[in-house]
Write a structure and sequence with these properties.
The complex is a heterodimer of chains A (379) and B (510). Chain A has 379 residues and is mainly α. Chain A contains 16 helices and no strands. Chain A is globular and about 65 Å long. In chain B, 34% of the residues lie in helices and 27% in strands. The C terminus of chain B is likely disordered.
C-alpha cells in the first residue's frame, strides 16, 4: 500500500489526482444527464448552486458532511492499520441504540449540554463494541475483517428493526421509531455561525453542534495517528505486520484497539441525525453514510485534512442532488444516486486509474518528484 | 576479432533526475563471457533491462548481430535470441520442469503436443550442454541449483543465443556455483554469448573473458579479465581504494551471554527448519553461522529474537531464560539487551514508507526518552536520529526523508545505528551487507568488530562466505536445519563449502 503513494509530490497526490478523478466522474455523469435530454451544464449549475448558493444550502451541505466526516475518519483509522472496515454503516446504526437509550433516559432530566457528553460516550462505546467482535475474530481467528464487518451490518440492521418495531416503539404508535426526544436531548443549531458571512439560515435547517464535534474528532484522529505512540504502532502494523512483530507490537492488541477507535468514530455519526435533526431514533437513519465514508476516506487519502473537504464534497452531492431532482423533473432521485455512484467509482474504486499517466507526465516535467521510481530499479 | 553479438551505442536512461545509464557504449563479442560489475545502483540491472525490453532507452542504439533493432518488450528480446536468467527465479513452483519450460511458448490449446515436442527438445539441450534435469520433477522439490538450470533451459528452449544472468550465484553453494560455471563454459564453447552481472569479483576472475565496470550509470572501464586483479576492479567500482579484508585483532571471549540449547523450530507447514541446534556466544566474540540460504539460519535467529515460536529447546540470555517456546516479546528482549538486525530490512527491520527518524525508534518506541505521556516526543526523536545520522554517516543526512529513498547501504546503516546505539549486550545480525555497496560493507564490518571489541556478544548469520570468514572468531556451518560443523576463523573456503553442501564432517576432514 505504501509504494504507489511514494512517487508524486504531495500537492499532486492530495489535490491533482482527486481533482482529475472528480472531473472525470462529472464528465461521465454529464453524459448520463445528456442521455435523459437535459443540459448537463445547467444541471451542474443547479447542483452547485443548490449546495453552496445560499446559506440554506450550505447549512444542509455541512449537515450531511458531518455524517461523512465521522464515517470517513472511521474508515481512515482502520486503513492506517491495514484494515478495511466496511462496517461503519452497522456500527453507526447500532450506536444509534446507545444514543437513543441515553437520550430517552435523560432528555426530561438533564439539559442538552449534559446529555450530549453522555450520548457521545454511549455512541462511541456501542460503536466500538460492535467493531470489537469482528476485530477479535480477525486478530485471534483470522476471519477476514471485510467479511465479518459486512455481516455485522446486516446483524445491526436486523437488530435495530426488531428494537424499533418492538421495545423502543411507544405503545400505540404506528411508525417504527422511538418517541420524539425532549429538549434535553436536542443539540443546538449552529446556523448562526454562517451569519457573519452574510448568509441567512432558517432555524429548521438541521446544521448542528455535532459538526463541531466532527471537526474536533478530525484533529483528534490526526493527533492519534501522527503524534502518539499508539498511532506509531498502528501505522507500523499497517505498513508492515512483520516489522510490527519485530518491533514487539502485539498484533491482537493493535487490531482490536484500532477497530474499536474506528467503530467509536463511526458510532458518533449517530449523534448528528438523532440529536441534531430528527430527535428520534428511526429506521435506517444512517442511510448509506457508512459506505460513503469509504469513498471519503479514499478520496481524502486517509488524512483528516483530506477527509473533511471530501466529506463536504459528498455533502454537496447529497444536498445539491436533492435540489437537482426537484428542479429538473427528468432527473429523478435515482439519477442523483447514479451521479454519487460515479463519484464513488472514480474517486474511490478507480482512484489509481489516472495515476500512471500523471506519474509519466511528472516524470518528464519535474524529475525530482519521481526519484523513488529509479530507486526501485536499483542494480 | 569475433563478430559483435551485441553493440550498444550511446544508451541513456533516466528515471526523473536520476540518470541510471549515461552514454553507455558496450560491445560484446559473440562466443565470449562478459562480466558486468558495479555497486548497487550503478546501473547494471537497468542496462540489462533495456536490453531485455523491460525499459526503453531514452536515446541510443542497440544492434544485435550487427543489425539495429528496437526492443520494446521481453518478447522482442526473445525473438532476437536474447534470454535472461533472473536473480529471483520466474518459475511456477508447483509445475513440473517441462511445464515451466513451455510456459508462454505453448503452441496450441491442448498441451500434449507441446509437451511431447518440448520433451525431445529438452533431451537434446540436456545432452548438448550437460544440463541434466528430470523433466517431470516438480520445481519446488528441486534444489535451487537445479531450479536455476531450469531457467537456463527455458531460455535455451526459446532459442537464446545471448544469455544474460543477473547475480546467478547468490543462492548457490560454492559447489553449485562451480557447476554453473562449467555449464556456462560449455555454452560458450558452443558459440553462445554470455553476460554475467554480479558483484562478486572472484566469480568475474574465475569465469569471464572480459569485464566491464559500471559506476554511477557509466561504464568506467573494460578490461581483459586475465590482465586485471580483484583489487583493481574493486577500486574501479568504488572510485577509491577499498579494504576488502577488515583488520581485526585477537578475540578475548569472556562469559557466555547467549546460550542456545537444543533449539528446534518448525515452519507453518510443520517442516522442521531448525533441528536441535545449540550455540553459545560469549561476550567479546563474533560467532558466525555459515550456510546456503534456506537451511534454517533465518528461522534460528527469528526464534532466538522472539519473532518465531520454537517447538522445543531453550535460550538463555545472561543466564536467564527467554520464553522461546511460548510468547517471547521482542520488545521485552530489547529491554534485556538483545538487539536484532534482521535479514530482511525492507519488510522487517524498517518501514520503508516511514520517515528516517520514525524508523530510528522502531522497536524502541516504548523508551521514555522518545515519549511525552502517550505522545511521541518528536523533537527528541529527531535529535536522536540526527545524532545517529552523524555517527554512522548516513546519507543523505536528512532525518525527515522517506526511508525508501535511501540506498540499500544507508538503509542498513539506519538499522545498525538504531540497534547498536542502544548499547545492547548481545547483537544478533542477519545478512548485514546483503544488497549493500562495497564502501558501506567496509564501514559495517568495522562497526561489528568494534562491537566485539567493546565486549559485546555478536551472533552473525550470512550467506556470504567471505563475510563470515573475515568477521567471525568461530564459524558454525548450518545445513538442513542442523549445525554440521564448527571451525576456527582460519577455516578455508573449500572446507566450509563442503560442510555447507551437506557433506559429512568426516568426509570433509579427509
Amino acid at each position: 500500500m505504501s509504494t504507489p503513494y511514494a512517487k508524486l509530490p504531495g500537492w499532486a497526490d492530495y489535490g491533482l489526482i482527486p481533482l482529475i478523478n472528480l472531473l472525470v466522474a462529472f464528465a461521465v455523469a454529464g453524459l448520463v444527464v445528456l442521455l435523459v435530454g437535459e443540459n448537463p451544464f445547467h444541471a451542474a449549475v443547479i447542483l452547485v448552486d443548490g449546495a453552496f448558493g445560499s446559506g440554506q444550502g450550505i447549512a444542509y451541505t455541512l449537515y450531511y458532511a458531518t455524517n461523512f466526516i465521522f464515517t470517513g475518519l472511521a474508515v481512515a483509522v482502520a486503513f492506517h492499520c491495514g484494515l478495511f472496515n466496511i462496517g461503519g454503516e452497522g456500527q453507526a446504526y447500532i450506536a444509534g441504540l446507545g444514543v437513543g437509550v441515553v437520550c430517552l433516559a435523560f432528555d426530561h432530566v438533564l439539559p442538552w449540554w449534559l446529555t450530549f457528553p453522555v450520548a457521545i460516550l454511549a455512541a462511541a462505546a456501542v460503536g466500538a463494541l460492535w467493531a470489537l467482535i469482528p476485530a477479535y475474530l480477525q486478530a485471534r481467528r483470522g476471519s477476514h475483517i471485510v467479511i465479518t464487518t459486512i455481516m455485522f451490518n446486516f446483524i445491526a440492521a436486523s437488530a435495530m428493526v426488531y428494537l424499533l418495531v418492538g421495545p423502543l416503539k411507544p405503545r400505540g404508535a404506528m411508525a417504527p421509531q422511538t418517541r420524539q426526544l425532549a429538549e434535553g436531548a436536542q443539540l443546538p443549531k449552529i446556523g448562526f455561525l454562517l451569519e457573519p458571512f452574510g448568509l441567512t439560515v432558517r432555524p429548521s435547517v438541521p446544521f448542528n453542534l455535532s459538526f463541531i464535534l466532527a471537526l474536533v474528532m478530525a484533529v483528534v484522529v490526526w493527533a492519534i495517528i501522527w503524534r502518539t505512540k499508539l498511532g506509531y504502532e498502528i501505522r507500523t502494523y499497517g505498513f508492515s505486520p512483520k516489522a510490527a512483530r519485530y518491533a514487539g507490537i502485539s498484533e491482537t492488541r493493535i487490531i482490536i484497539i484500532t477497530m474499536m477507535i474506528s467503530g467509536a468514530l463511526a458510532g458518533m455519526m449517530a449523534l448528528n441525525p438523532i440529536m441534531g435533526d430528527q430527535h428520534n431514533v428511526s429506521l435506517d437513519f444512517v442511510s448509506g453514510a457508512g459506505f460513503v465514508g469509504i469513498a471519503v476516506a479514499l478520496m481524502g487519502r486517509s488524512h483528516p485534512a483530506g477527509i473533511v473537504p471530501a466529506a463536504i464534497l459528498f455533502g454537496m452531492l447529497y444536498q445539491g442532488g436533492a435540489e437537482l431532482a426537484f428542479e429538473m423533473p427528468a432527473i429523478s432521485r435515482d439519477m442523483i444516486v447514479i451521479i454519487q455512484g460515479l463519484v464513488i467509482l472514480f474517486a474511490g474504486a478507480l482512484e489509481h486509474l489516472f495515476r500512471p499517466t500523471v506519474q509519466t507526465i511528472f516524470a518528464s516535467l519535474s524529475p525530482r518528484s519521481v526519484s523513488m521510481a529509479a530507486k526501485g530499479e536499483r542494480a | 576479432m569475433a563478430q559483435a553479438a551485441i553493440e550498444l551505442t550511446g544508451i541513456n536512461k533516466s528515471f526523473g533526475a536520476v540518470q541510471a545509464n549515461r552514454d553507455i557504449n558496450l560491445v560484446i563479442e559473440r562466443g565470449t563471457i562478459r562480466g558486468i560489475v558495479g555497486e548497487n545502483g550503478a546501473g547494471k540491472s537497468t542496462l540489462m533491462s533495456i536490453l531485455y525490453g523491460f525499459y526503453q532507452a531514452d536515446s541510443g542504439e542497440i544492434k544485435v548481430d550487427g543489425k539495429p533493432v528496437s526492443i520494446k518488450t521481453p518478447n522482442d528480446a526473445i525473438a532476437l535470441g536474447i534470454g535472461m536468467v533472473h536473480q529471483h527465479f520466474m518459475l511456477v513452483e508447483n509445475f513440473t520442469v517441462i511445464e515451466n519450460v513451455i510456459l508462454g511458448a505453448e503452441s496450441e490449446a491442448l498441451l500434449n503436443k507441446s509437451i511431447a515436442k518440448a520433451r525431445s527438445e529438452l533431451e537434446r539441450l540436456e545432452r548438448e550442454y550437460g544440463l541434466e534435469v528430470d523433466p517431470d520433477a516438480i520445481i519446488e522439490e528441486l534444489p535451487v541449483g537445479l531450479q536455476q538450470r531450469v531457467e537456463i533451459l527455458k531460455a535455451l528452449y526459446r532459442g537464446a543465443e545471448i544469455l544474460i544472468l543477473d547475480e546467478p550465484t547468490g543462492v548457490l553453494t560454492p559447489a553449485e556455483a562451480d557447476h554453473l560455471f562449467r555449464i556456462l563454459q560449455q555454452l560458450k564453447e558452443q558459440g553462445k554469448t554470455i553476460v554475467l552481472i554480479t558483484h562478486k569479483l572472484r566469480e568475474i576472475m574465475a569465469i569471464t573473458d572480459t569485464v566491464s565496470v559500471m559506476r554511477q550509470g557509466t561504464i568506467v572501464a573494460t578490461r581483459e579479465t586475465a590482465g586485471t586483479t580483484v583489487e583493481e576492479l574493486a577500486e574501479l567500482m568504488v572510485g577509491r581504494r577499498v579494504l576488502l579484508q577488515v583488520e581485526k585483532g585477537e578475540a578475548s571471549p569472556a562469559e557466555v551471554k547467549l546460550a542456545v540449547k537444543g533449539l528446534t523450530v518448525k515452519d507453518s507447514r510443520g517442516v522442521t527448519m531448525v533441528d536441535d541446534v545449540s550455540v553459545d556466544v560469549a561476550a567479546g566474540e563474533i560467532v558466525g553461522i555459515a550456510g546456503v540460504a534456506g537451511n534454517g539460519q533465518s528461522e534460528l535467529i527469528e526464534a532466538i529474537c522472539g519473532i518465531r515460536r520454537a517447538e522445543s529447546g531453550s535460550v538463555l540470555l545472561d543466564g536467564k531464560p527467554i520464553d522461546v517456546t511460548g510468547i517471547a516479546d521482542p520488545g521485552e528482549l530489547r529491554d534485556r539487551g538483545l538487539a536484532h538486525v534482521p535479514e530482511d530490512r525492507h519488510h522487517v527491520g524498517l518501514v520503508l514508507a516511514f520517515e528516517e527518524n520514525e524508523n530510528s525508534i522502531l522497536g524502541y518506541h516504548d523508551k521514555p526518552l522518545y515519549l511525552k505521556g502517550p505522545f511521541l516526543n518528536i523533537d527528541a526523536i529527531r535529535n536522536d536520529a540526527r545524532e545517529k545520522i552523524e555517527k554512522f554517516d548516513i546519507r543523505p543526512g536528512d532525518c525527515r526523508l522517506r526511508t525508501a529513498n535511501f540506498s540499500g547501504g544507508n538503509q542498513q546503516k539506519i538499522v545498525l545505528a538504531r540497534e547498536m546505539e542502544q548499547d545492547p549486550g548481545v547483537l544478533v545480525v542477519g545478512q548485514p551487507t546483503r544488497g549493500v555497496d562495497v564502501g558501506a560493507i567496509e564501514f559495517i564490518h568495522k562497526q561489528l568488530i568494534a562491537m566485539r571489541d567493546r565486549g559485546k556478544a555478536v551472533l552473525l548469520i550470512s550467506v556470504e562466505l567471505d563475510e563470515i570468514r573475515s568477521l567471525s572468531d568461530r564459524i558454525l556451518v548450518m545445513f538442513d536445519g542442523r549445525i554440521v560443523g564448527e571451525r576456527g576463523a582460519e577455516a578455508t573456503e573449500g572446507e566450509l563449502g563442503l560442510l555447507m553442501a551437506g557433506v559429512e564432517q568426516q568426509e570433509a576432514a579427509e
